[in-house]
Design brief:
Number of strands: 2
CATH class of one domain: Mainly Alpha
Helix content: 25-40%
Order of helices and strands: HHEEHHH
CATH superfamily of one domain: Cytochrome c-like domain
CATH architecture of one domain: Orthogonal Bundle
Shape: elongated
Length: 168
């Protein structure tokens, strides 16, 4: 019985490794009829080691700031990109120039990857709404004549006060 134990352990380990390798990996989800399909294939083969994007089936980005590695690139599920920004990054080795190899794809291949990312990146980004900018001066946000200066503060010129600034 103990002689077969190593075989069972190896079989269980191989099965577990197969399950782990398949977890969360759905492969390329872009239809072959999609104009950006070639870019998705290139992204999956050239960029998967460092970048995450569900549509390409890649999981190369760190998801926790505390255990990220230096080579973890941006997670494109949550980061929107434009064709121009992708082409810049491809040509210059990312934005810092420290990790990503320059010209990992070139020519039409670079354009295909850029178009693919511009279409699919950022789909899980948190949408934020900026508040309407307002000044800290309540009188500036109120209709004319509706705000009076606090007691002891002269009204501005043209108001009901003297029009003179207080002397210090």
């Amino acid at each position: 019985m103990w002689r077969s134990a190593p075989r069972i352990i190896v079989a269980v380990a191989v099965a577990a490794a197969g399950l782990v390798a398949g977890c969360g990996s759905r492969g390329d989800q872009v239809s072959k009829s999609d104009p950006t399909y070639a870019g998705s294939v290139l992204f999956a083969t050239r960029c998967a080691g460092c970048h995450t994007l569900d549509q390409a089936g890649t999981h190369g980005s760190g998801t926790n700031v505390r255990d990220r590695q230096r080579t973890n690139g941006p997670n494109f599920n949550v980061r929107k990109e434009t064709v121009a920004s992708v082409l810049y990054a491809v040509r210059n080795g990312g934005f810092s120039g420290a990790i990503m190899p320059q010209n990992i794809v070139i020519g039409q291949q670079a354009v295909s990857v850029a178009q693919f990312l511009a279409k699919y990146a950022g789909r899980k980004a948190i949408k934020t709404i900026s508040p309407t900018p307002q000044t800290t001066n309540p009188a500036a946000n109120a209709p004319p004549g509706s705000v009076r200066p606090p007691a002891g503060v002269p009204a501005p010129s043209g108001g009901t006060g003297t029009g003179h600034a207080p002397a210090f």
